[in-house]
Every structure is written in structure tokens, then in C-alpha cells.
Amino acid sequence: MGAEIEDNGAIQIPPTRAGHIKKRALKNKAVSVSFNEKDLKDYVTGFHKRKKKRRKEAVKQQEEKLRIKRIVARKQRKLEKELALHGGAPPATNESDDYEEDHEESEPIASVNGTTKYDNGDMHVTVTTTEISREDKDGPSEKTQAAVPRLIEADKTHKLSVSKKKSFKKVPKHKSRSKPQNKRDKKKGKTKNKR
Length: 195
Description:
The chain is of the alpha+beta class. It has four helices and five strands.
């Protein structure tokens, strides 16, 4: 059963069936039964043990996932807290803080403090902006008053135009109708009580 050579020079290999076992070989095969009490006991009692082992591993995996979730949530909270403390800017490392302090001394930053007034016909709005520094932990010494918009003509009463809608038609109440007589009642000559 070697390789066959065709006239064009190509080698052709015959297909093989390695996985097929003849039925006759299976029938003629001798059956051997061996009984070992220890193997049987391990097999029978092993169901519960294997099930407990699988459950224990699953619980460990769940605990590990929960632990990782808690760690991620803790990191997220810490990052959000730092962002809130630093005014929305990501916190810098210690080296960059030193650089920023030196940089602040060399170039003063323009002040954000200021007052802006807006006039919109019948309302005056005053906006006061102040810079909050980290050194002022106690807060500003002077109390800021909340600007409340007030009307120019507060003493005049405003007349609001009220649209007069057409009122709905009044529908007269319907009187309840008398129940028609049954055929049987008509034949017997019964009359209904009139009010």
C-alpha cells in the first residue's frame, strides 16, 4: 500500500480510516470485570464531596469579585474626592506642586475677584465673584450677602391680563327613563307605578 505514482508525476496517497473499529472486533473482545470496593466507595461518596468542592470554589470566586469591586469603588471615591478638593482639576504629584509654587511666585495670576451688574429692563442682577484659596481654611472673614434680584417698580401693582374663556354649555340633567315592560307583563295587564 505504498504511494502510487501517476503518469503526470504527482504522488497520490490513499485515504486512511484510523478511527473506524469493526463491529466484529468489538463483539469478540473479552469483557473483564474487576470489583474493587475502595474504588466503588470513592466513586459513590465522591458525588457529594465534588459538589461541595465546586460550591466552595464558586463562593471563593464570588468573594474575589466583590473584593475587586470594593477596591475599584474605593479608588473611584478617592479620585472624586480629590477632584472636588482641587476644584475639578486632577490632583498633581508633589514634584509638580513644588514647581507650581515656584511658578506662582514668579508670575502672579490675574485675580478672579470682580463684580458684574446686569440690567434687564425691569430687573437688576449683581454678580460678585471671589477666589477661594486653599490657605483660607476658615473661610472668608467677611460674610457675603446673596444678591437678590429686585424689581425696579416693586411698589406698582402689575395687572395681569386674564383671558376670558367661553364657559362650557350647561347640559340639562336627563330624567331617568322608565323601564320598558316585558311581553309577559303586557299580556297580564300589569301597569307600572307612576310617580
